[in-house]
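Why does residue order matter? Because the sequence determines the fold. Keep that principle in mind as you read this record.
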Amino acid sequence: MDKILDGATRARAELPPPGDERYDRYCEALADELSSGWADVLAANATDVAQGTRAGLGPELVDRLALGKRRLDELVDLIARTRVALPTVTAPTLVTGPAMAPPCAGCPSRWVWS
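Structure:
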């Protein structure tokens, strides 16, 4: 577990600072790639749905497995909402009360990661 937490701490330290324009560019590229590749996603999903049907999945599960345009719209909307929220959710918050233990191995005790 310490190895995982240490890796996560190192990865977080390498992130661009909150509000960096690279987050916007990443979200934009992700939405574009998802949209432009959606036909490939649907083709792979059709294979998964067919395999699920052959394997005896019930109609409710097959329905949940199947993707469509509505799901793409939901994912693109989620990316847009994430893009807006990233500066807030990635910003460290200065602890102003009594000293607290760090939330993870390697995290400075003066910061709480929200």
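Residues 69-89 form the longest helix (21 residues).
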